[in-house]
């Protein structure tokens, strides 16, 4: 991987701003791809990696996507776009990928020879993950949710089992990957603009995504124009959001 991090993590975090106007200067496609690679190293719930990344470099496609994003500047002036997609629907595929990985990590030995820790890990993907993810038009999810609420009266239990909860699980991890991407870009002096202002139906159509795939964020990429940052960074006073217990 050829990403040279010119900035430290804290420098990159401070450098990153949402840039709404990008220079008409091209950026290196491979460097952006390297940053997408770094995005995939983000923490992800149960290591399920329920995400996909669409790297849009064709000017015609950028134009089409910008039009479906209300022609907002962050998309319209972008040199490239990265679209982070949450793919909750791929859970079975990702579960099997994790199981195969674990099997190889454990030396492809028979399960009877697994250590306690290995058994637990395998059980997690073979039994717990399907229990959490399996659903049938939201019905099974609701039954699980009610059952978990009842069990939860007596003991701590994982409660996020509805279809809507699982969407949040997938989007949370996709958001972390998006942030990894933007910080990696900032580290090499590339700029980004995260956007959720778009017509998701039209974007999904352009990307040929199934209805179960959900757009997490569209990220405009390029180099900041002098007028590209609309104002000073504003944050709520830290004391208001920091709680020490
Ligand atoms: C999930 C998400 C969606 C956003 N959607 C848009 C958007 O549609 N258009 C836009 O111009 N900025 C968008 N932003 C950028 C925010 O307005 C911006 O992050 C915020 O004002 C803080 O500024 P900063 O990123 O420069 O620190 C979005 C940011 C996030 C995290």
UniProtKB/TrEMBL annotation:
Keywords: Membrane, Oxidoreductase, Transmembrane, Transmembrane helix. Coiled coil: none annotated. One of its GO terms (molecular function) is oxidoreductase activity. Residues 13-222 form the Nitroreductase domain. The chain crosses the membrane at residues 132-154. PANTHER family: NAD(P)H NITROREDUCTASE YDGI-RELATED, NADH DEHYDROGENASE_NAD(P)H NITROREDUCTASE XCC3605-RELATED. Belongs to the nitroreductase family. This is Nitroreductase. It comes from Flavobacterium urumqiense.
């Amino acid at each position: 991987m050829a990403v040279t991090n010119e900035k430290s993590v804290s420098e990159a975090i401070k450098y990153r701003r949402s840039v709404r106007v990008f220079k008409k200067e091209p950026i290196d496609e491979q460097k952006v791809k390297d940053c997408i690679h770094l995005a995939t190293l983000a923490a992800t719930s149960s290591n399920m990696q329920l995400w996909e990344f669409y790297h849009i470099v064709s000017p015609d496609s950028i134009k089409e996507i910008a039009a479906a994003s209300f022609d907002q500047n962050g998309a319209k002036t972008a040199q490239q776009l990265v679209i982070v997609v949450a793919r909750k629907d791929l859970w079975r595929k990702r579960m099997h990928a994790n199981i195969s990985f674990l099997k190889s990590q454990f030396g492809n030995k028979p399960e009877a020879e697994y250590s306690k820790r290995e058994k637990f890990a395998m059980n997690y993907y073979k039994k717990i993950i399907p229990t959490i993810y399996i659903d049938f038009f939201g019905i099974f999810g609701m039954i699980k949710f009610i059952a978990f609420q009842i069990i939860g009266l007596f003991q701590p239990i994982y409660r996020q089992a509805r279809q809507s909860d699982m969407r949040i699980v997938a989007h949370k991890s996709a958001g972390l990957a998006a942030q990894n991407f933007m910080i990696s870009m900032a580290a090499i002096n590339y700029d980004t603009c995260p956007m959720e202002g778009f017509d998701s139906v039209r974007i999904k159509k352009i990307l040929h995504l199934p209805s179960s795939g959900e757009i997490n964020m569209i990220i405009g990429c390029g180099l900041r124009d002098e007028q590209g940052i609309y104002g000073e960074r504003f944050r709520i006073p830290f004391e208001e959001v920091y709680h020490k217990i």
